[in-house]
Amino acid sequence: KIWNVSTGQCINTLRGHNDEILDVAFNATGTKLVTASADGTARVYNTMTGACQAILIGHEGEISKVSFNPQGNKIITASSDRTCRVWDVDNGDNLQVLEGHTDEIFSAALN
Questions:
Q1: For a FRET experiment, which of 17, 25, 60, 76 has its CA 20 to 30 Å from that of 53?
Q2: What is the DSSP letter of 39?
Q3: Calpha distance 72→67 (Å, rounded)
């Protein structure tokens, strides 16, 4: 759910994942947010409309961390499949797979 902190009102209920949400991140302008889920996907939502704009599919395990880059045009995801992935925010394309870890990854940042 997205809440207005000033009024306490629920603005939107975001739907789409079929397992628990493990992380959420907003872009710098607050117009988009990305969710990380135990269902192995991340989803990009428009914060004003609640519409899902992209589903990031490719990990083989749960996604524990998501983060936007400062420009807001890329997202990094960290997963229990021992990879991080870099994604294009606008079309959901997987731009890069970062491999090499020997255990699950719990955090990631993109600059």
A1: 60
A2: T
A3: 9
